[in-house]
Amino acid sequence: MAIALDRPDRLNALTFDVYADLRDLFADLREREDVGAVTLTGSGRGFCSGGDVDEIIRPLLDADAQRRLEFTRMTGAVIENMRRCPQPVIAAVNGVAAGAGAVLALAADFRLLVPTATFRFLFTQVGLSGGDMGAAYLLPRVVGLARATEILMLGDPVGAQRALEIGLANGIVDASALQDEAAALADRIASGPRRAYAATKQMLTDEQDMDLARAIEHEALAQAQLMDTDDHREFHAAFSERRPPRWSGR
Q: What NCBIfam families is this protein classified in (predicted)?
């Protein structure tokens, strides 16, 4: 599945409706066995510039506390649903990823960047907490606490090369090849052992808050279940017959 944020004249700034659509789409993916991987990108010259100043920030200044809380919970649900959907998500970051746009890319399982891409976790620069939509949970686990503290507190731009050096990017790709590279990775995942990939994503998400004993037990239960799948049996058959496996995702 390919998702493109499509407001290029606003650098794909998010609206209330777009947040709700993303929340619902990623929630629905939990039941979509026909989808093996997801790519997320932006139209035009940017990935996503965050929440639209005119359509979100301005109205929320006049909203009551309950309405603001409903909004912040909705934005957080987008990220939680991204992490909970079984399909790996590939962010093809084709330009600036700022504010909520940076967190969307952060929540993906893979991040491919063009050389001119830039992350801007600029929440403190608008007078808000750097911990928004799960950023303070996810970013230290990707780049470490010290770097996450610097990035979230100061809000300075993180360019593509720096992102690659600190683990915030999986690769830098020429702009002309970005979408093809993202699609190729998605095809590789979708044509592979999907249940194994989904379980790996779940382990990586769940075990961040577990001690070692719980994590080992969590993995033991998952592996025991996966040993009874068609794909695991197919591996053994392919190995015995000296041929590549034909994965079914079951």
A: PRK08258.1
Q: Where are the domains of the chain?
A: 2-190, 194-241
What class does CATH assign to 194-241?
Answer: mainly alpha
* Per-residue pLDDT reduced to its tens digit, 72-101: 999 999 999 999 999 999 999 999 999 999
Strands across the sheet containing 96-98: 96-98, 118-120, 158-159
Tally Cβ neighbours within 10 Å of residue 92: 29
Spatial CB neighbours of 134, under 8 Å, sequence gap ≥ 6: 76, 79, 80, 103, 107
Q: Are 199 and 139 in contact (CB under 8 A)?
A: no
